[in-house]
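Mods, move this if it's the wrong board.
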Amino acid sequence: MINIVTLVTFWIDKNLAQNNKFRIQESSLVLLSALGGAAGGLAAMYLFRHKTKHAKFFLGLPALLLIHIIIAFLIIF
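Not the wrong board. Structure tokens:
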């Protein structure tokens, strides 16, 4: 569920950016990704071509996703 929320939030921010409106803070996007939505954020980054030039996103989201995968693996096994 958090991945869907994160993906939709990235999409909303992209639409706001295209319309020169008040934007969602980058810290909110990073927080949603860190709270478990890294896969959704990463998918949104490439689906919507949004935040692809920002290092904290193009490096940070894959790193967060890897951390989430490791945590899930440790919990399961």
